[in-house]
Amino acid sequence: MQSLSSREKQDLQQQETVLVLQGGGSLGAYECGVYKALHRHGIKFDIVAGTSIGAVNAAIITGSRSDEPAKALEDFWLDLSEGVTPSSLPDGIRPYFAATYSAIFGNAKMFFPKWFAPSPDYFMPYFWQYLYDITPLKNTLNQYVDFQKIRNSNGPRLIITSTDVQNAKPSVFDSKYDNIEADHILASAGYPFYGISWTQKSGKYLWDGTLLSNTPLREVINASPKHDKKVYVVDLFPKNHPELPSNMFEVWHRARDIMYTDKTEHNVHMSKIITRYLKLIREMHDILGSSTLDEKAKAKFALLETEYHKLASDRGGIIDKIIRIQREEHFHFLLEDADFSLATIRELIERGERDTKQALATSSAE
C-alpha cells in the first residue's frame, strides 16, 4: 500500500503561470497592451492559451522571431492598422467609418473580400461559403512568428482552440504535442458570423474557437491537470452594463458581449471542489494504508490503488488565483471589433497597459 511518491507530491506542488487570451477581432490590440504591461513587470508564462485573435497574439508571444515579443506584438498591431480613417474623427464616429471601410475593402494584412477576387461562383453569391479570405493573415503571421521556435524552444507552451464545423466539437492544438503551423492559427480565427472562411487542417474543417468558448481556460486545465495555476485572463467584452439597450443595435451588441464575456467562474469553482474531494480521498487513503486490515480488506484496497494514484496525481491541480484584466467601454458599437484604424489600435494598446497596471496593483494589495 503506497502513499503518493515524493516526485508526485513535488509535481502537484508546482504552480504554472498562465495567460488566457480571448477572441475579439481588432479588440485584440487591447491584449497587446496587456501583454506589454505584464512583460514589463517581469511576469513569465508557462502556458499561453488563446482563441481567434487571442490565438494570433499567443502565437506571436510564444514564437516571436525577435527576442522582444512585446515589441513584436505591438509592431504586428501597428502593421495591421489602417491609416485611411482620419485619426481626427471623434471616438464616437471613428469606429463607424473604420468598420465600414474594413467591411468593404478588407484589411491588406489580415482578410481579403471575395468580391475583389474573380471566381467561378462570383455571380452566384447565394452559394458563397465565405465573404473574406484570411490568407493575408497567414502571410503576416509567417513574417512575425517562427513556428519552429514554438515547437522546439523551452519557452511558453502554446494552446489554441477551434471548432469542428461538422460535429461541433472542440479541436485543441497544443505545442507540447502538435507541430503548430500558421494554418492552425487560421483555423482558430475563422469567424463565420463575419463571413470569414473556415480552414481545412488534419482532415477537419475548422471554425473559430469562440463558437464554443471565448475563454479557453477549461482547455488549459484539461491539457495540464497536474499543476496548480495562477491565471491571467484578458476579458475583452464587458460583463456589466447597467444601462438597458435602447434600440436593436444596442440589443445585439449587449447580447454579443454576454455571449463572449469571461464565464470561467464555474471552472474555478469546480476545480476547488474537486481539490477538496481529492484531499479527502488522500487522507482516507493514508489512514487505511496505515491501518491493520484483514486479507479480504487488503485485496479490496489493492484494487483501488491504481485508480487512486491516477486521480491523485493526474487531476491534482487547482486554479490557485485568477487576475482578470477587463476592458471597459466608453460607448457601445456593435462592430467595434472591426475598427482597425490607427488611432483606435493605439488607444486600445494604451488602455490595455493602463488597465493591467491597475489590475496588478489591486491584486498585490489583496
List the helices and strands and how they pair.
Layout: H1 6-13, E1 15-21, H2 28-40, E2 47-51, H3 53-63, H4 69-80, H5 94-105, E3 112-113, E4 132-133, H6 135-144, H7 147-152, E5 157-164, E6 170-174, H8 182-188, E7 199-201, E8 204-208, H9 217-223, E9 228-235, H10 248-260, H11 265-289, H12 295-314, E10 319-326, H13 342-365
Parallel strand pairs: 1-2, 1-9, 2-5, 9-10
Antiparallel strand pairs: 3-4, 5-6, 5-8, 7-8
Helix pairs in contact: 2-3, 2-4, 2-13, 3-4, 6-8, 11-12
Task: List key phrases describing it.
disordered N terminus, 13 helices, alpha/beta, 10 strands, two-stranded antiparallel sheet, 366 residues
What does this molecule look like?
It contains 13 helices and 10 strands. With 366 residues, the protein is of the alpha/beta class. It has helices at 6-13, 28-40, 53-63, 69-80, 94-105, 135-144, 147-152, 182-188, 217-223, 248-260, 265-289, 295-314, 342-365, and strands at residues 15-21, 47-51, 112-113, 132-133, 157-164, 170-174, 199-201, 204-208, 228-235, 319-326. The strands form 2 sheets. Strands 1, 2, 5, 6, 7, 8, 9 and 10 form an 8-stranded mixed beta sheet that branches. A two-stranded antiparallel sheet has the order 3-4. The longest helix is centred in the last third of the chain and has 25 residues, at 265-289. Helix 2 (28-40) packs parallel to helix 3 (53-63), helix 3 crosses helix 4 and helix 11 (265-289) packs antiparallel against helix 12 (295-314).
